Every structure is written in C-alpha cells, then in structure tokens.
Amino acid sequence: MATQRFSLLKMKPGRRPEFIGPLARALGPRLASNKILRLAAIALAATEMDEVELLGMETDVSEDGTFSARAIGPLAMLPLAKKAVEGVQTAIRKRGKPYAMRNGTLIFTSYQPPVPSNASMKLLGSRLMLQFTGHPQPTVCTLQVTTRCQANCIHCSAARHKRKDLPELSTDEWKKVIREAEKLGVVSVVFTGGEPLLRPDIFELIEWVDKNEAVALMFTNGMMLTEENVQKLVQAGLWCVHVSIDSPDPHAHDEMRQLPGAFEKAIEGLKRCKEAGLLAGISTYATPERLRNGQVVQMIELARSIGVDEITIFDVVPTGRLLLEDSKHLLSDEDKIELCRLEEEYNRTKPPLVITQAHVNGPTGVGCYAGWCQFYMTAYGDVTPCDFTPLTFGNVREKALEEIWSDMISHEGYACHKSSCRMQDPEFRAKWIDKIPLSGPFPYPVADLDKLGDIDLSHDDIERVGHYSSVGIKH
User: Fold this and answer.
1) What's the pLDDT tens digit per position in 7-26?
2) What is the value of pTM for the model shown?
3) Three-class SS of the chain
C-alpha cells in the first residue's frame, strides 16, 4: 500500500496572515477574518516560523487500486474539512477501476491529473469554491498556441481565429498565462492549434507547466510526431498526446485534411508516443451517419488495435469553417443515447477508455464545461468559454486573466450550470451566437452583442445564421 501526505492549506504567520496551498483561494478569505486564527498567527510570528500547516490529507492506494483519504492537521476536525476529504474519497471510488497505475497513483482519464498527486489535490479547492460561491474554479484551460497548420481541414473549428493584423502571443506572454491559470485553479493545461508542434517554443511551454500544479496535454494532427520530437515531449514532461483522426479509412482521413499521408503519419506517431511511455489517445467525432454505418465502432476498434489509452468521441458542434451546412450532421437525443451505450459497453473491457462528449458534457455527466470549469484562449490572447464558442470576454494583453474569468462567470449566459452543451442549444444560440455578423471579428466581443440588436430574418441574415449553423469538428 502506497501512503502519501499532501499539504492542502498553510498559513504564513503575522498580523496579516497569508494562506497558501490548494485550498487557499477557497478558504483563505474566510479564514483571514477568524479571530482565533489571527491571534494564533500573531503569536506564531514571534517564534519566527515561516509557515504552519493547517490542513493536510493522507492518502493510501492499495494494490488493487482502492483509494482512501483522511484529513490531518489542526483543522482536520472541522466538519467542513472532514466532509471535503470524505467527498474526495467517495468521488474517486465512484469512478471504478483506474485504467492504469503509475508510481502509486491511479489514472482514470488523461484529462485530469493522476490520483493522488499535488495537482489532483487542487480539485478539492474547486469543489469548495463551488460550495461557497455556486461556481467552481477553472480546472481546464485550452490554449491555442498557434493558428498555423500543415493541413487545410474542411471541418476546422479554429480557422476563423486567424488574424493578419496581430502577432501571436510570445513565449513570455504564454508563460504568464500558464502561471495565472495555475493560480486560478487549473489542473489541466491543454495545448492545441492549429498544429502546436509548428511552434518552435512548444517544448519550452510544456516544460514551463508546473507539474505540481497541473498536467500538460496536447492535441495534434500527428504529422510531426517524429522520434526526436516525441523524446522532446517526454523530456518536457508532457502527460498525454491526443492525435486527431477523422476516419478509419486512410484515404477519407487524408482527403478531409487535404493532406496526403496524414493518416499513416498519425498512426506512426501514436505508436511512437506509446513506446516512449506517454499516455496517448485518439480524438475523433460522431455524426448520425457515422453512428449508423459503423464508423464510430470502427474508430474504437482502430484505437484498440493501436493500443492507445483513450479515444475521445466529440459531438459535431455547430461552429467552424463549413458555413452553409444544415443540421443533418448534428446528433439527435437518440444518437447520443446510443453513443453513451457504446461507451458503457466498451468500457467494461479496457483499454482503450472510451470518452464521449454525449456523456461527459450531457445530463448524465458533468454538463457543459464552457465558462463553468473551463476556458479557451486564442493564439492572440482572446479568452472564450470553450474552443467552439465564438465569444470573447477579454484579451490577456489588456486585462488580467482572473478579471476576464470573473467577467465570464458573472455573465448571464455562463453564471449558472447547464446540463448540456450550450453551442448545441437553439435558444442559447439565438440569444448569443446567431446575431454575430458574418464579417466578424471572431471571436466576437460579448460586450458588443447588445449593440447588434435582434436578427431580422426577413433580409439576408439567413446566410449569417447558416454561418454558425455549420459543422465544426475539434481539429
């Protein structure tokens, strides 16, 4: 049995005590006004103690993967502390068996840190913030580090983010963003594009992620997963790589990406990542047609044959490059039920772990992540609720990330939890998305939406509605 101890909350003594650790953001403001703690902090300052641990967690992981946790420290007997730690134990045990164990930690999904780890302890802070304020801390940030890409996908969801009038964020600007995100509560830093490996400093940015604070993931087209680059990713500390594959048919994949040989290189890259010890996954999507003709199942079987750890099956979301497509590619409620059934069926025998957006971002899962526990940032610094949402709440070149996040979660469209994807909700789209002019800019400043007024469908706005009633696929 592997026993580990984690510090959750520390206090730096003094007349104005400072609280640090994973729970500081949630508990610090409440503890700072506690008279007993303030007196203790003043008294301890006289002893010249640098810091005092107030609350910690001791964890055990048995050989069969059973996780146990208990609160330790002066605040351990507080009902809130005990309840929070017990909640962590219950939540982890409800996940079932992990698909992998490494160095005494449990891996349930690449999208979250292994359990237990310093990074995973931060999730407790987000749970407490939800309890105190009704809104969690952001735990995931997706960073579009570049718009450049070798492919020219007909279904690209990021194509409209390209700008000719602005430079992409510099290395130092991205480093500042990553640190601010970690401070806000982020435990998963996702690098995407474009093609992130086209950015020369990508290895430096991955290495910059504080592995005690967060895990680093990457979405890539796989074209540059050479032996040399894979080794650099390992050395930089990348946690997982997700390679986008559009079809089990090599020709169809290459044709959609308008990039000959893309399928073969993607598969080769996945195998190299696995051989190098990285977690590896396939990113793909489902349409009603793919669900009925068996391509979704074929993609899962392809993932199994390669030996990857996960396959993520996204919904088709109305956004992106295909401006005038209609809704025939969108999944119905019945389609999503079938996807959830397939996910459950295949996950009885792992690997790979099958993750469907239909489940995770639906009523049976966590619901919509956008602006709830996740944000997306374009290569130019615009912050949006997710990579499918063409609304910006501010730019990090002009405002602090924390201020932008605060504006986002106080906005009418994002202040409350939603049980399913907002971008697939006709009412949400009618109020916030469909009025965006076809000329952009993209993403569109949410503060300017009220100036647009309502859409008059009696004129030529059918094209405008068609613009964001189109199909968009992640990568």
Assistant:
1) 999 999 998 899 999 999 99
2) 0.93
3) CEEEEEEEEEEECCCCCEEECCCHHHHHHHHCCCHHHHHHHHHHHCCCCCCEEEEEEEEEECCCCCEEEEEECCCCCCHHHHHHHHHHHHHHHHCCCCCEEECCEEECCCCCCCECCHHHHHHHHHHHHHHHHCCCCCCEEEEECCCCCCCCCCCECCHHHCCCCCCCCCHHHHHHHHHHHHHHCCCEEEEECCCHHHCCCHHHHHHHCCCCCCEEEEEECCCCCCHHHHHHHHHHCCCEEEEECCCCCHHHHHHHHCCCCHHHHHHHHHHHHHHCCCEEEEEEEECHHHHHCCHHHHHHHHHHHHCCCEEEEEECEECCCCCCCCHHHCCCHHHHHHHHHHHHHHCCCCCCEEEEHHHHCCCCCCCCCECCCEEEECCCCEEECCCCCCEECCECCCCCHHHHHHHHHCCCCCCCCCCCCHHHCHHHHHHHCCCCCCCCCCCEEHHHHHHCCCCCCCCCHHHHHHHCCCEEECC
